[in-house]
Amino acid sequence: MARKLKHVLVFAELALLAAGSNATALAEDSISVEKAVFCRTVDHLNPVGIFSASAVIHKEEPLYIWIRVRGNDEALRMLKSWKRLPIYYSWVKGAQTGLVDIGIKPQRFSQTILKALEWQVADHGYFTWRTYGYSQHLSDGNWSVSLLDANKKIIREIPPPVNRVFKPTIAVITQRPN
Q1: Sign of CA dihedral 149, 130, 171, 56
Q2: Residue 91 belongs to a domain
Q3: Across-strand partners of 63?
Q4: What is the pLDDT of residues 72-101, one digit of tens each?
Q5: Secondary structure letter of residue 31 according to DSSP
Q6: How many CA atoms lie within 13 A of 146 on its CB side?
Q7: Could you write out the DSSP letters of every residue in 118-163?
Q8: Domain assignment present for 121
Q9: Predicted confidence (pLDDT) per residue in 115-150, tens digit
Q10: Which ranges in 24-110 belong to alpha helices (H)?
Q11: Contact present, 149 and 104 (Cβ < 8 Å)
């Protein structure tokens, strides 16, 4: 009897966990890309040395992707609930590299940041968040970046053009340092 009750309780806990994870799932288009650039570095969350269509970099020199994302009130509710807002990115050249979380992490979460984001949502209907990632191990060729939300669904770019999947591309040419 006790063993049967234990199995029922474990099943009930799993059911609650599943319901909870569905209840806190981020709706599609809660996060979108407002702006993204490839650059040499990032200083105080601002891109420095912006590249356009191609980047000539030294071997082992980092190439950064700087991104400003926009989140709506649902993204803000998720941030309040989870105390984090995952945003994943990956470099892609044929195959995708591993996913890296560059979103709002628990160690960056604070009531001050939350209040500022709440103010932005109340004033504009959305908040913006600047973030970045980089790689020092890119070979020659065309590279793109995939950006995924907390559900690991591709984030869309806001106009222009309307509702296009976000996937910026850059041609990388590596050189040996002089």
Answers
A1: negative
A2: yes
A3: 135
A4: 999 999 999 999 999 998 888 877 778 899
A5: E
A6: 16
A7: HHHHHHHSSEEEEEEEEES-PPSEEEEEEEE-TTSPBPEEPSSSTT
A8: yes
A9: 999 999 999 999 999 999 999 988 888 888 888 888
A10: 73-82
A11: no
In a domain, 23, yes or no: no
DSSP 24: T
Range of the domain at 68: 29-175
Identity of the residue numbered 56: V
| Count of Cβ atoms closer than 10 Å to residue 170 Cβ | 19
CATH classification at residue 170: 2.60.40
CB 145 within 8 A of CB 168: yes
The number of distinct structural domains making up the chain is 1
> Backbone phi, then psi, for 72, in 5-degree steps?
-95, -170
DSSP class of residue 30 equals: S
Is there a domain that residue 6 lies in? no
- Region class of 39: left (phi > 0), else alpha (psi between -120 and 50), else beta: beta
User: Which stretch, 27-31, 85-89, 106-110, 166-170, has highest mean pLDDT?
Assistant: 85-89
3-state class of 107 per DSSP? Answer: coil
CB 168 within 8 A of CB 157: no
